[in-house]
Design a protein that fits this description.
By secondary structure, the chain is an alpha/beta fold. The protein contains 14 helices and 19 strands. It has an 8-stranded mixed sheet with strand order 12-11-8-13-16-17-18-19, sandwiched between helices. A 5-stranded parallel sheet has the order 2-1-3-4-5, with helices on both faces. A two-stranded antiparallel sheet has the order 6-7. Helix 1 packs parallel to helix 2. It starts with 10 loop residues before the first strand and ends with a helix. Bound molecules: cytidine-5'-triphosphate (CTP).
């Protein structure tokens, strides 16, 4: 599934209440449409003070709904029609005042009236608060947010950082791309709700001296995609990442490490508290037996090296095998990155590592790319996940893991 189809077929009712964050909503409309959604914009009177309906109409390609007395609707019931057509109502920005109105069930303008008249079970309400940090921290707002959640709304954010007023703190509306990703995640089935997942990803880096080291070509993309898919499926995810320059998926707790030993130390104490461990990392099998304190010089001046140094290597611990050997081990999933004989090597690793599931892929064909093909191997047999982008494959893998957790006695 490409970026342009993540929200295909979804109809989003996007409500804007008054706030400077309205400027982000223009970008949000573009991103939602780019992801395949259709967007109907509805604006409160206060929102019009921050951004014009002309802008929002041009971006959404639909006239903006603004008044409950809008005569364009044949039955004159915009507040009913809008949510009957929508898969979700997202209010972004949601001002402190608008949130208070939602909590009180007031209906004195089209936006609040529509939220109240919404069939809650088929058109869920998502709100992205946007306000000054003092307004956000105020007990009245916090009380309202708690009540809003209790009433079934999903609260997205808010973010933290610089505010338009010049202050710094909680209350910023999430960025447009973050809101789009939240919406994509919202529509994923919550197959791993309440589950704890631990995932390793990326290469490791084994230092030779302060400037050089041994590593490999793993980009970490598959592991990060799995972490995102698991979080989308409702799991609590901890991602132990080797040195990669990838953004942390939303809602995922990240622990950065460099070496295999550091990865081992990050994983082992945590493993037993998790339901699932997925080892996607391309852990370096060996590390230099000694790390030179200073850079090894070509002229042989370093005490420990001649002009062409040779290294003694020592084996790194096998993190996956160590987790699989724990008495209270989680459900373990290993990866096998091979350059040939995928099935044979994957079967061998299934036995050697003592895990219930190995996911094979051809390393050189996939390192650094956005797509992949996987071969799932377990005691029962094997299943191919055909060539696809890594996020779609990750979601399929999460489905497979969820089924196995469910079937576990
Ligand atoms: N793995 C690990 N710790 C290691 C080496 C590997 O946790 N020190 C995990 C990887 O994350 C992967 C699986 O073991 O899930 C298989 O890794 P791979 O490198 O393919 O297998 P190796 O056991 O190293 O075998 P070989 O290199 O001989 O193929």
């Amino acid at each position: 599934m490409s970026e342009s189809t993540q929200l295909a077929g979804k109809h989003v009712l996007l409500g804007l209440s008054g706030g400077i964050a309205c400027y982000k909503s223009a970008e949000l409309v573009r991103l939602l449409i780019k992801a395949g959604a259709t967007v109907q914009v509805m604006m409160s009177e206060a929102a019009e003070a921050f951004i014009t309906p002309v802008t929002m109409q041009a971006l959404s390609n639909q006239p903006v709904l603004m008044s409950q007395w809008d005569a364009r609707e044949p039955n004159n019931m915009a507040h009913i029609n809008a949510t009957r057509r929508a898969d979700v109502m997202l209010v972004a920005p949601a001002s402190a005042d608008f949130i208070a109105k939602l909590v009180q069930g007031r209906a004195d303008d089209l936006l609040s009236l529509t939220a109240l008249a919404r069939p809650a079970e088929r058109c869920p309400l998502l709100v992205a608060p946007a306000m000054n940090r003092e307004m956000w921290a105020h007990p009245a707002t916090q009380r309202n947010i708690a009540q809003l959640r209790a009433d079934g709304a999903v609260v997205l954010g808010p973010g933290n950082g610089d505010q338009a007023c010049g202050e710094i703190g909680d209350g910023r509306m999430l960025e447009a791309a973050e809101l789009r990703d939240e919406l994509i995640a919202f529509f994923q089935p919550k197959l791993l709700a309440g589950k704890q997942l631990l995932i390793t990803a990326g290469p490791t880096f084994e230092p030779i001296d302060p400037v050089r080291g041994l590593t490999n070509r793993s980009s970490g993309k598959m592991g990060f995609a799995i972490a995102r898919a698991a979080a989308e499926a409702g799991a609590e995810v901890t991602l132990v990442a080797g040195p990669v320059h990838l953004a942390t998926p939303r809602g995922v707790r990240r622990v950065d490490v460099q070496t295999a030993l550091q990865m081992y130390d990050a994983v082992l104490p945590r493993a037993a508290a998790h339901d699932v461990f997925i080892a996607t990392a391309a852990v370096a099998d060996w590390r230099p037996a000694q790390i030179n304190e200073h850079k090894i010089k070509k002229d042989g001046s370093s005490a420990s090296a001649s002009a062409a140094p040779s290294f003694e290597l020592t084996e790194n611990p096998d993190i996956l095998a160590a987790v699989a050997a724990l008495a209270d081990r989680p459900f373990c999933v290993g990866f096998a990155a091979e350059s040939r004989d995928l099935l044979k090597h994957a079967r061998e690793k299934l036995l050697r590592k003592g895990v219930p599931l190995i996911v094979g892929n051809l390393g050189p064909a996939t390192f650094g790319r956005d797509d992949n093909a996987l071969l799932l191997v377990d005691a029962q047999g094997q299943r191919e996940l055909l060539h696809n982008d890594k996020l779609s494959l990750a979601r399929e893998l999460i489905r497979e893991i969820a089924t196995r957790l469910h079937d576990k006695p």
